[in-house]
Every structure is written in C-alpha cells, then in structure tokens.
Specification:
With 158 residues, the protein is an all-alpha fold. It is 80% helix and 0% strand. The radius of gyration is 22 Å and the shape is extended.
C-alpha cells in the first residue's frame, strides 16, 4: 500500500493492515516463473511439433503451415477445456498458459461452457463474444493501422 493511502487509514485500520501484512503468505515468485516458463515453453514446443508435422507430411511451406498449426492448438485447448483439464494445468502454471493462443481459446471456450444453459444465442454466443469482442476489435483496428502505415510508406518510397 502506498504511503499516501496509509495516511488516510484510521489507527484501527492501520493496525489491521499491519497485522494482515505480517501474516500474508509469501508468494513463490521464482517457482511461479519457472512453472510458467516450463508450461508456456511446452505449449510452444508442441506447436513446433505440429508445424513440423504439417511441413513434412502435407508439403506446406513455413508460411502456410502457421494457420493450421494455430487451429490445431486452439482445438486441443478447447478439448482440454471442455474436459476440465486445461483449468488444472492453468492453475499450476499460471501465466504460462495465458500467453499463447491456447489461453485465449480457453477463455472463449470457458465462457461458452459456463453460459450454455442460457441458450445458444444469448448464452454461448453473447457471453463468448463479450470476452472476445475487445480482442477482435483491437486486432482488426491494429491490422488497419499497420496496413495504413505500410501503404503510406510505400507511396512515399515509390
């Protein structure tokens, strides 16, 4: 807590704050970082294996193998989410599962599963895209800005 906020506390509140701070368990930051690195790296390694599978067996190029690789990773994430496995992995690994595309797929699938009793349109569709909407909007906007900058630079460069 900042010193500015501490000054606004009553003596009883300050005493409780100090009491709670002493008894608060220490967070295992190093262990959390290691687990996040381990699981996030394992997800990326799995993605590399899947991409190599598409390269070797289906004559994809490195450029064209990316999309089916992401699709398979999303599918695996959704299946593990629906079975309740992904949440256990995420609980143990923390941010390691949130950073890759699988974390986004998990959050979308979780919202859809949680609200399925409200119906397909208002429950699954509405709640799922409430979460995904901001990501989609900012993704499309970012792509627009990048293309706009690229177009301007190509017009200036000749």
């Amino acid at each position: 807590m900042s010193d500015k906020k501490k000054k606004k506390l009553t003596p009883v509140q300050q005493e409780y704050h100090d009491f709670a701070k002493v008894r608060e368990p220490r967070r295992p930051v190093l262990a959390n970082c290691f687990r996040a690195f381990l699981v996030g790296g394992a997800i990326c390694l799995l993605g590399q294996f899947i991409q190599d599978f598409f390269l070797w067996n289906f004559d994809f190029t490195e450029k064209t193998a990316g999309n089916p690789t992401v699709a398979v990773l999303v599918l695996i994430s959704v299946i593990l989410t629906s079975l309740g496995v992904y949440d256990h992995i995420a609980q143990w690994a923390g941010a390691g599962t949130a950073v890759p595309v699988t974390g986004f797929a998990n959050s979308i699938a979780s919202a859809a599963i949680e609200h399925r009793t409200e119906g397909f349109v208002l429950g699954v569709g509405g709640k799922m895209f409430k979460l995904a909407g901001s990501v989609i909007v900012f993704g499309v906007f970012s792509a627009f800005v990048v293309v706009l900058i690229k177009t301007i630079l190509s017009m200036l460069g000749g």
